[in-house]
């Protein structure tokens, strides 16, 4: 039996699946990740992306932060791919309990998923640091310089920058769903970013599935490893 056949059997027999995903889920929608060969780390900027996307850089070089952010982080024309759509279908059928994502692009919601736990926030939520008024991603994309609120305050994306902590409520919810899951499917992540990658330690079941194009540090802990593009795998199994 192939890996995809085994996964199909497990999915068909379960109504308690949780999906944990990273940048590889969105690369098939044309959004570059940080660590792949084609990712942002292999392009040339005045500063490395990790530096630009840090709290310190945002505070000290806000205009330069926004130049990079508009250019590289706001892929507002991207559409959900097969993985996003199939996960939304599994949720609609009552099989998938939650999507836990490291991505900030909102594509899971665009595909129809309802229970999406965004560990690193979302580009679609932006708030005034002075009055709290909310702005959408289009407002940021179309602004110039440092985007300002009607009150004159500075607008900040509701994304978790390097040096910032994850939202505790979101983390606790992710721990709850992962710890209760029968099947945990991890897809499109190198499992290199902590504390998010540490969530895997809360899984107690025996159907841990890793779907990624390359090997991960947790492959030997998995009950099933499939090395392939995640959209392709979901099209075959769902």
From TrEMBL:
Nicotinamide binds at residues 34, 104-105. Binds 1 zinc ion per subunit. One of its GO terms (molecular function) is zinc ion binding. Its EC number is 2.3.1.286. It catalyses: N(6)-acetyl-L-lysyl-[protein] + NAD(+) + H2O = 2''-O-acetyl-ADP-D-ribose + nicotinamide + L-lysyl-[protein]. The keyword Transferase applies. Zn(2+) binds at residues 128, 131, 149, 151. The active site is at residue 120. Signal peptide: none annotated. It comes from the Bacteria. Residues 1-238 form the Deacetylase sirtuin-type domain. The keyword tRNA processing does not apply. Its main location: cytoplasm. One of its GO terms (cellular component) is cytoplasm. InterPro entries: DHS-like_NAD/FAD-binding_dom, NAD-dep_sirtuin_deacylases, Sirtuin, Sirtuin_cat_small_dom_sf, Sirtuin_class_U, Ssirtuin_cat_dom. NAD(+) binds at residues 23, 27, 34-35, 102, 104-105, 120, 189-190, 212, 230. Its cofactor is Zn(2+). It is an enzyme of class 2 (transferase). Pfam families: SIR2. It is found in: Cytoplasm. Keywords: Cytoplasm, Metal-binding, NAD, Transferase, Zinc. NAD-dependent protein deacetylase which modulates the activities of several enzymes which are inactive in their acetylated form. PANTHER family: NAD-DEPENDENT PROTEIN DEACYLASE (PTHR11085:SF4), NAD-DEPENDENT PROTEIN DEACYLASE SIRTUIN-5, MITOCHONDRIAL-RELATED (PTHR11085). Belongs to the sirtuin family. Class U subfamily. This is NAD-dependent protein deacetylase. The gene is cobB.
